Amino acid sequence: MIDYARPYEMNMCDLYPPTPPTSARLDDFQVFKKGNASYIYGNYYNNYDVYPEPEMDTTANVYHNLVSSREYRHEDWKSKVIVDWTDDDTVSWLIECAVSQGFCEYDVPFYNFKVCGVELSNMRREEVIQRMAHPNVDLNLSKKIGEIVYDKLQARLSEEIHRQTSVFRYAESDPYTQQETVQSVLDLDKHRLYTSDYKPNDSSLLPASDSSDDAEDVFRTSAPASPFSYGSDSKSGDEEEKRKIPKRLPGRPKGSGKNRFKRPRSVSVPEFLRNLLFDERYCPSIIKWEDYSQGKFRFVKPDEVAKLWGQMKQNDNMTFEKFSRAMRYHYRQNVLVSVPTARLVYQFGHKGPDFKTQNPNFVKVKSEMDLQDMPYS
DNA sequence: TCTGCATTTCCTGTTT
DNA sequence: AAAACAGGAAATGCAG
């Protein structure tokens, strides 16, 4: 089922690590890719399986930990859902989580977790464990803390999702006319969510997932393994040669059945489009609102949108043709609607995601610009 | 393990 | 003519 109208939804920009070192826009989408950069000790490292040497002075780290961890002891996070957490909320939760499990707060390198809730919720087990590593703390202890923290996080996340789902069953019937009601229901729900009886499943003693899974890419390489797998890709022009090569069967080519790893829940195609439209980095440069009041949007650079989708799904072979096929499947349920006369223009249907936004296409209103131009206002 | 859903891939034909 | 569109068919991956 698609959560078309989730109460809060991550923006594309929120999915990715803080200010990656490369300036290339598409690199923002590589957080799900195995072996790609992860943020630790203020630096990016390319391998989840090693514990890199921190660049910061380790003594300073420990000192920082001792002195500052109490600054984060506030309880704001308890009344919020995870995606609303600030980096301080994340740290507060982390410390309380570790302490409640009998660990010493000084063994938790909380400065590695100064991230917002969205980023935290997208962390994989390996990344949490890796961030937990500290040269002055026994590796096994760090690993254990990391695993428990990860399990607690997942338990909390699944409880949140469960709560959202039950709220939005109600909302799905008519998301537009009921929007206000739904919002108020959500607000109520949000505020009483974790104030009293939050009891996550205690799976902290489960064995750690096999991180070796991450060492290999489960998706096929961009080059076909054999001519038999992609017969139609042959561009020899030799008709007879073509006839000899059996056509590739329709459907996704078989990946490796083994070495599968869990990816974080990905957004659906309509949600992905909505998120791009909400993100100043992509709207209006590669996708933009054509008629916001009707939910109509236009692909400015369709190939780039498809590429982003492909990168998010770790699929280098994604094209706009395939992406648009996925979009067309959403016509059936009125999540998306075709706009016949205009090319590259689509429309969110009445069952589409909530696309309410203050400033479509991020066009500054005149008064705002005037205010900015005034030196002292 | 099974099932259903959301894709992914390829394809043929049509429209712009 | 090329690109975009439409939708069938078959396959995968994931979640329940």
Automatic annotation (TrEMBL):
GO molecular function: DNA-binding transcription factor activity, RNA polymerase II-specific; sequence-specific DNA binding
Top-rank taxon: Eukaryota
Biased composition (Basic residues): 244-264
Protein's cellular compartments: Nucleus
InterPro entries reported for this sequence: Ets_dom, ETS_fam, Pointed_dom, SAM/pointed_sf, WH-like_DNA-bd_sf, WH_DNA-bd_sf
GO terms, biological process: cell differentiation
Annotated region described as Disordered, given as residue ranges: 199-264
DNA-binding listed as a keyword: yes
Alphabetic keyword roster: DNA-binding, Nucleus
This protein's GO CC annotations: nucleus
Entries under Pfam families matching the protein: Ets
Family from the record: Belongs to the ETS family.
Stated name of the protein: Transcription factor Ets
